[in-house]
From TrEMBL:
Organism field: Rhizobium oryziradicis
Residue stretches making up the GGDEF domain: 189-321
Entries under Gene3D superfamilies matching the protein: 3.30.450.40, 3.30.70.270, EAL domain (3.20.20.450)
Pfam families, per database record: EAL, GAF, GGDEF
Name the UniProt record assigns to this protein: Diguanylate phosphodiesterase
Stretches assigned to the EAL domain: 330-584
Superkingdom as given in the UniProt entry: Bacteria
Length: 594
């Protein structure tokens, strides 16, 4: 091998290592070519890189194509010699007169080399025209300075915060930059971007703890090498997180055509470094128009798609705007909740009475939380309470609900209005070490007896809690507070566990009450639930009673109380007091007449 051949191999290796060939157009390079064209007053300028058999344009002004053959290309000579070149008139140059550029009508060329720190010429920064020209030393000095700026940009993108050390792949900042360039140059051309996530956070933490970071680095390096071979030289893989890799699909790809490819990718990557034994890879995909979606939103949507993929059966999920809006709404609720709690005019209680079949009287009511958001309007507790509960703010919410409930009870007691109030709390409150002491303090502060309140906890939540929670429930029960198991029948229904619960009431879920009118099997199920609950020592409340027929059936089955729209919808405090007093007065009149 000759010295020239060996140098050319090294030069091409240096070019490949910079990972700039066939990358997206970049505004940072386009600014330079625009300046060059304006400074020289010429129509054509380019940042040209010399590949094996072509000149590829990272940036260009005045031409539509992105590459030309390397054969007799002036930029190739500049790259090989690392020296400036000026061809004042192609027609007077015996070598370039019949070159592809000369035959295309180009008459003038001036280019200076793009030289790496180790002395290899990558290509040239050049200007061209269809008319002959002469250039002076000052113009060539300016062109040389601008070429150095281009080279600085190339080196900076490669070396300063743009390449992950372990994988050798472009990182999230480079992907963001490429997305920004797509926004400028590829608006109206939909693209598909996928994200391969090797592991859930818990798996990543466990593997790093057990095997050490060097083992994980080996996995990342293996996956990066696999992805390079998978995408080929024409596309780029990015490492955008410790376990996450992004890949653009080919420009003509469709969501349907991508699915088999992604399924195969999941299967293949699972075999890399025994990955399948320690991690569960998943892939999220977004289809987007770079002109309509900002780089920030594209990356956010991509991460959302990956999270959805974690919950899918296939391990693959496409971005869903509907799911995204749902997550954004939940975040909005979480963000706005502390303000709603502090202001005091957004949250309020409504009350739904319960009728006792035994006495025929309204003896209790359930306090139901309501949130009237200033912008989103009325928000159902079934929507916002799980969000608050998952955030860890349920302590503050339960404290507010208990305070407000006791405040109402104290006011009713002062006005001679006797009614037990059922209050919904979270099973997570039972894990608070000071919950019992705070409850005693609140009862004393408001002057309310423990026997006037009932705590409701969902069956599923109670079953999932620890033994210490049962101990706290027992202390609360011993204090005189009634405990009700809400939504009975929809959760675990672990009878051996339920017989140990210090509860007084079970509330049969509304779905069973509604189905009761469908047929005999449904009625037998509700009847069995009532009898079983009674045998375990519980009173039974039926929720969601909406018809007289259902109420009569429940009374015949021995149900203790009912609650539902047939009796009354939830109402404000003033309406509840008036409604109960009116009903009690009517009952007295009816009894007197009878």
């Amino acid at each position: 091998m000759s010295i020239a051949e060996a140098r050319e191999i090294s030069r091409l290796a240096s070019l490949r290592n910079l990972k700039i060939l066939d990358t997206l157009p970049s505004e940072s390079f386009d600014r330079v070519t625009r300046i060059v064209a304006q400074y020289f007053g010429l129509p054509i300028a380019a940042v040209s890189l010399t590949d094996v058999d072509r000149q590829w344009f990272k940036s260009h002004v005045g031409v539509d194509h992105t590459q030309i053959p390397r054969f007799k290309a002036p930029c190739s000579e500049v790259a090989e010699t690392c020296k400036p070149l000026v061809v004042g008139d192609f027609e007077l140059d015996p070598y370039y007169v019949d070159s592809p550029l000369g035959q295309a009508g180009v008459r003038f060329y001036a280019g200076v080399p793009l030289i790496t720190p180790d002395g290899y010429g990558l290509g040239a920064l050049c200007v061209l025209d269809t008319q002959p020209h002469a250039v002076d030393a000052q113009q060539m000095a300016v062109l040389t300075d601008l070429a150095a700026m281009v080279m600085d940009q190339i080196e900076m993108q490669h070396a300063v915060g743009r390449i992950e050390a372990v994988s050798g792949l472009p990182n999230r900042y480079q992907l963001f930059s490429d997305l920004r360039d797509l926004q400028i140059h590829a608006a109206g051309k939909p693209r598909l971007l996928s994200c391969l996530d090797l592991a859930q956070t818990m798996q990543f933490d466990r593997l790093s703890r057990v095997m050490g970071p060097s083992h994980f680095d080996g996995i990342v390096a293996s996956v990066a090498a696999f992805l390079r071979s998978h995408v080929g030289d024409e596309r780029t893989a990015y490492q955008i997180g410790p376990t996450q890799f992004a890949i653009f699909a080919p420009e003509n790809a469709t969501p349907a055509s991508c699915v088999p490819v992604l399924e195969q990718l999941l299967r293949d990557v699972g075999e890399v470094s025994d990955l399948r034994m320690t991690m569960t890879p998943s892939i999220g995909v977004i289809s987007f128009d770079p002109g309509d979606m900002s780089p920030e939103d594209a990356l956010r949507a991509l991460h959302g798609a990956v999270q959805d993929a974690r919950n899918s059966e296939t391990g693959i999920a496409f971005y869903s705007a509907t799911r995204d809006l749902w997550h954004q709404r939940n975040f909005r609720l979480l963000h706005d909740f502390p303000k709603a709690l502090a202001e005091g005019n957004q949250l309020h209680l409504a009350f739904q009475p319960r009728l006792s079949f035994i006495t025929g009287r309204i003896e209790s009511a359930e306090a139901l939380l309501r949130w009237n958001h200033p912008e989103l309007g009325n928000i159902s507790p079934s929507e916002f309470v799980p969000v608050i509960e998952a955030s860890g703010q349920i302590r503050q919410l339960s404290a507010w609900v208990i305070d407000q409930s006791l405040l109402h009870l104290a006011r009713w007691q002062k006005n001679g209005f006797d009614l037990r109030l059922s209050i919904n709390i979270s099973a997570l409150n039972l894990n608070e070490p000071d919950f019992f002491d705070l409850l005693i303090a609140k009862l004393a502060h408001h002057g309310v007896s423990a026997s006037q309140i009932e705590f409701e906890l969902t069956e599923t939540a109670v079953m999932a809690e620890k033994e210490t929670s049962c101990d706290l429930m027992q202390r609360i029960s011993d204090l005189g507070v009634r405990i009700a198991i809400d939504d009975f029948g929809t959760g675990y229904s672990n009878l051996s566990y339920m017989q140990k619960l210090p509860a007084d009431v079970v509330k049969i879920d509304r779905c069973f009450v509604a189905d009761m009118l469908l047929g005999n099997r449904e009625r037998v199920l509700v009847d069995s639930m009532i009898k079983l609950s009674h045998s375990l020592g519980y009173d039974v409340v039926a929720e969601g009673v909406e018809t007289r027929e259902a109420a009569d059936l429940l009374q015949a089955m021995g149900c203790n109380e009912l609650q539902g729209f047939w009796l009354s919808r939830p109402m404000p405090e003033e309406a509840l007091c008036a409604w109960v007093l009116e009903k009690r007065a009517a009952d007295l009149v009816h009894a007197a007449v009878a």
